[in-house]
Design brief:
about 60 residues, 2 helices, about 50% helix, mainly alpha
Length: about 60
């Protein structure tokens, strides 16, 4: 019977820790911009694109 009370106490502690971490993330601005990351891959950024390297042939 003691183990049940121990497991309940541990689970409530872990749940409170996750709730605290979630509230900290919300207050620090982690979820402010939820649209841009979803469409970032659709925009082609050509100014930072590097040209593909050509394969060098070995001459013997």
């Amino acid at each position: 019977m003691y183990i049940i009370f121990l497991m309940i106490a541990v689970s409530v502690t872990v749940a409170a820790a996750f709730l605290g971490a979630f509230l900290w993330a919300v207050r620090s601005g982690q979820y402010d911009d939820d649209y841009t990351p979803a469409v970032r891959m659709l925009f082609d950024n050509e100014t930072n694109a590097k040209p593909a390297k050509s394969a060098k042939k070995e001459t013997s």
